[in-house]
Write a structure and sequence with these properties.
five-stranded antiparallel β-sheet; single chain; three-stranded antiparallel β-sheet; about 55% strand
Length: about 100
């Protein structure tokens, strides 16, 4: 099971367990100051990664996909996919 935990400075979306093929999504109103930032932490077995899922200056990334080698983003308009972050292995003490 993949654990996903996303948050911003003001909102913690909580931890969500996802099975293969499931998705997690949310919506929000960006800050009128232009400072909205969401980051997500992912965990599966002994692997972890964190990445910025949304920031006000990036109006193009709409989807994030988790693969065996890390997380990928997909742009809204160009429909291009890019590699965002690799997994890192952790020892049991780092859980």
């Amino acid at each position: 099971m993949l654990m996903v935990h996303c948050r911003s400075k003001d909102d913690d979306l909580g931890a969500h367990g996802l099975a293969v093929g499931e998705s997690f999504e949310w919506s929000f109103d960006p800050s009128w100051l232009g400072e909205t930032l969401f980051w997500c932490s992912l965990a599966v077995e002994d692997k972890r990664l964190s990445f910025v899922a949304y920031y006000e200056g990036d109006m193009y990334t709409e989807y994030w996909y988790v693969h065996d080698d890390g997380v990928y983003g997909q742009t809204r308009h160009a429909n291009a996919t890019f590699y965002e972050a690799p997994w890192r292995r952790v020892s049991p003490r780092q859980y």
